[in-house]
Amino acid sequence: MRPSAAQRLFFILPLGAQENRSRFVGSLKKKFAEQEVESLQQRTTIMSKAGTPYSECLVAVDASTGAVLACIDLRTPCALTGTHPHGVPQDDPHGCYLLNVVVREDVRGQGLGRGIMLTAMARAVRLWGATGMYTHVEADNEVAFGLYHSCGFLEHSNDCRYEAASKLGQTVLLVAPASAVAAAAAA
Ligand SMILES: CC(C)(COP(=O)(O)OP(=O)(O)OC[C@H]1O[C@@H](n2cnc3c(N)ncnc32)[C@H](O)[C@@H]1OP(=O)(O)O)[C@@H](O)C(=O)NCCC(=O)NCCS
Questions:
Q1: Distance (Å, whole) CA 108 – CA 117
Q2: Which residue among 72, 117, 146, 160 is least packed, with the fewest CB closer than 10 Å?
Q3: Any atom of ligand 1 within 6 Å of the Cβ of 87
Q4: Across the strands, what pairs with 55?
Q5: What are the extents of the domains in the chain?
Q6: What is the CATH code for 46-186?
Q7: 147-158 burial, b for 16+ CB within 10 Å, e for fewer?
Q8: Res. 21 pLDDT band, cuts 50 70 90
Q9: What value does the mean pLDDT take over residues 124-128?
Q10: 29-71 confidence digits (pLDDT tens)
Q11: Cα of 17 from ligand 1 centre, angstroms
């Protein structure tokens, strides 16, 4: 039986809406990626007067294909740049802030997250003399909590000055001492 014009329209409309929606999502993703690349370039190329970057991004790549598997950002301690990194408590001039740790979805659960975290922490201690590493975690992100705890992070304080309400929920400030690097690597 041939569908009537009205029936054809009924099928075509949702398909058209779907097509528009996926184009819209695609262009939003592209825009987001472009903004992220621009912001990353700005963050990592601006140097302090002492010649130290305010921020670094470490990337783990597949040795055979060059594909990016994981990344993490680090904010340099105030003692090196003269500017206090956002996220580190004001009374710690030697604190380094870690953020944006992400592992590609299909290679999660294989130790890459802990590997790149510990590499970043060891770099901050060795190169910048960081005595403490800080990060914020969303209170309901159990996987990230597990990752941070396995790298020696503990809750910094119950003081609500250090907590922030994000759009997705409450975030908690965590801290790890420099000694956590060796301890976590040896565990
Ligand atoms: C969080 C994330 C970086 C972990 O990376 P990963 O490579 O999968 O982690 P690892 O394999 O190194 O595991 C490290 C620890 O994380 C925790 N973890 C990892 N996968 C887990 C899972 N599926 N369920 C519960 N805990 C998990 C465990 O505590 C694990 O330690 P263990 O192996 O001793 O049990 C990854 O899941 C991710 O990219 N998530 C999306 C981005 C994100 O949430 N980032 C954190 C922002 S605060």
A1: 14
A2: 160
A3: no
A4: 75
A5: 1-38, 46-186
A6: 3.40.630.30
A7: bbeebbbeebee
A8: confident
A9: 94
A10: 898 888 888 888 887 788 888 888 899 999 999 999 999 999 9
A11: 36
What is the C-alpha separation between 95 and 24, in angstroms, rounded?
41
Residue nearest to atom 29 of ligand 1 (CA): 146
The letter for the amino acid at 138 is E
Residue-wise pLDDT tens digits, 149-163: 999 999 997 656 666
Say yes or no: CB of residue 111 within 6 Å of ligand 1.
yes
Ligand 1, residue 105: give the atom nearest the CA: 39
pLDDT, average across residues 163-176? 78
What is the residue with the minimal CA distance to atom 34 of ligand 1? 150
186 — pLDDT class (breaks 50, 70, 90): confident
Contact present, 48 and 54 (Cβ < 8 Å):
yes
Q: Which of 110, 138, 147 to probe ligand 1 with, by most ligand atoms within 8 A of CB?
A: 147
Residues in CB range of 7: below 8 A, 6 or more apart = none
Closest residue by Cα to atom 15, ligand 1, is 147
**Confidence category of residue 187, pLDDT binned at 50, 70, 90:** confident
